[in-house]
Amino acid sequence: MEFSNIISLLGIFSLTGGQAIMIVVGLILLYLAINKKFEPLLLVPIGFGAILTNIPEIGLSMSPVEKLIYADIKSELVFLMEALKSSSYEDLLAIIEQPTAEQALIIKNITYNLGYNPGILYTFYSVAIGSGIAPLLIFMGVGAMTDFGPLLANPKTLLLGAAAQFGIFATVIGALVLDHYGLVTFTLKQAAATGIIGGADGPTAIYVSSILAPELLGPIAVAAYSYMALVPLIQPPIMRALTTDAERVIEMKQLRVVSQTEKIVFPITLTILIGLMLPSAAPLLGMFCFGNLLKESLVADRLSEAAQGSLINIVTIFLGLSVGSKLAADKFLTAETIGILLLGIIAFAIGTAAGVLVAKLVNLFSKNKINPLIGAAGVSAVPMAARVANKVGLEYNSQNYLLMHAMGPNVAGVIGSAVAAGVMIKLLS
Q1: pTM metric for this prediction
Q2: Is residue 340 a part of any domain in this protein?
Q3: Does residue 349 contact residue 199 with C-beta atoms inside 8 Å?
Q4: How does DSSP classify residue 378?
Q5: Tens digits of per-residue pLDDT, 217-237?
């Protein structure tokens, strides 16, 4: 083989500008995870998955039929077009995008016989996200690591968690406004999936987008997890801008001791009530409450340890790589992606602000004052948002530890985002 032919086989000569950009994006995510410690358990696999999926030629995130199209072998394309009775190449692509059950079977058989296999990242995505199992298992693990005690000890904080979900519905409206003015094209389902970013809840965002707008899963997931990771940078300026010095130093009373019976009864009751009123929210909230019940029952320690340890770690690896597989240059570098990223940070800011403002409103009618800083923890970034509230509080009163108080609205935010997701799915799916 001639030297020139050997050189032509190198992947670098097939690298597109878009792929190079997305590899840089992957490196930035790795930098934020490793150097800045921003959500490293998620950003490391997402960032590395983005790098892998944009390596040319190999097609790690491609389905068998996508590999066939990418190979661009005329005889194979003609054979597939004849089998699907497509009149043109454009018609073929349209069929592949939304095939009927019969067409999907034909595509599967032909690609298999021609020797095309799914890329490993595509397989991860199909199993972890395409089936919907990964976000639900993540929710179970988070539930097993969650203490409902602060919420039960101070039920008023439920209002703060609910208020922070305002960012979700504000984002839906924002997406529809962008579509109305022709800046970005969003369907109602895509707008709803984008809106979930405002809840700062990665698994919920993935779950909803996989049902309502799977084509936008990559940018939605990246936006959700990126803003979760950037909580320490985004929230403090908003918290300071909306509170006075006197409000920031408010010391809250010590929480009452919540009995073990309350902790056992609560997740069971919550699952039944929400399940009966809003069945579409039952998968997310049910797994969250089940994980919590494993922990609080005190009779399933091995299961609880598995849910919050080995199982959630394994699922996180697959989930992160699956999200990274959706960061292919041709699908990510679009106007919709830019719109989603902009709407995401606006939604997150609105959710943070709403939580703080509602805390101030509650104080107008409450004898026992709430430090408004904990309202920012109403977004679902557990436990990062609660830690940020505690950190900002300590800056103004070194003896004022708000962490446990902030966990109340933080947990309420998880419940609120799951309910909001259920509403979206119920109305639009």
Answers
A1: 0.88
A2: yes
A3: no
A4: G
A5: 888 888 887 777 778 888 999
Residue 344 counted as domain residue: yes
Where do we find the tokens 């679009």?
334
How many Å apart are CA 283 and CA 61, to the nearest integer?
A: 27
CB neighbours (10 Å) of residue 13?
10
- CA torsion angle for 260, 264, 266, 271 (degrees, to 10)? 170
Exposure of 357 by Cβ count < 10 A (0-12 exposed, 13-18 middle, 19+ buried)? middle
Instruction: Give the separation between CA 106 and CA 172, rounded to whole angstroms.
Output: 38
Place of tokens 């800056």: 395
Cβ burial of 429 (10 Å; 0-12, 13-18, 19+) is exposed
Instruction: Measure the CA–CA gap between 109 and 130, rounded to whole angstroms.
Output: 20
Q: Are the C-beta atoms of residues 322 and 121 closer than 8 Å to each other?
A: yes
- CA–CA separation, 227 vs 229, rounded Å? 5
Q: Which pair of structure tokens corresponds to residue 165?
A: 């979900």
pLDDT of residue 11: 63
- Same domain? For 141 and 271 the reply is yes
**Residues 76 and 184 both lie in one domain:** no
Query: What residues make up the domain containing 91?
Result: 64-117
Helices in 85-146 by DSSP H: which ranges?
89-97, 101-113, 120-125, 133-144
Domain presence at residue 77: yes
Instruction: Provide the number of structural domains found in the chain.
Output: 2
Q: What is the pLDDT of residue 4?
A: 54
In a domain, 301, yes or no: yes
Q: Could you give the CA distance from residue 153 to residue 157 in angstroms, rounded to a whole number?
A: 9
Residues 142 and 262 in one domain: yes
Tokens of 256: 């009452």
The pLDDT value recorded for residue 38 is 79
Rounded to the nearest angstrom, the gap between the alpha carbon of residue 110 and the centroid of all alpha carbons in its chain is 35
Q: What is the pLDDT of residue 8?
A: 54
Rounded to 5 degrees, what angle do the CA atoms 44, 49, 51 make? Answer: 100
Residue 75's CB is within 10 A of a number of other CB atoms, namely 8
Residue 375 near residue 250, CB atoms below 8 Å: no
Same domain, 258 and 339: yes
- Angstrom distances, CA of residue 31 to CA of 48, 101, 256, 384: 11, 43, 42, 19
Residue ending a domain, among 55, 86, 117, is 117
Same domain for 405 and 259:
yes
Spans in the chain with pLDDT lower than 50 = none
Token reading at 396:
């103004």
* Amino acid 270: pLDDT: 96
**In this structure, what token pair is assigned to residue 125?**
């995505």
Residues 262 and 373 in one domain: yes
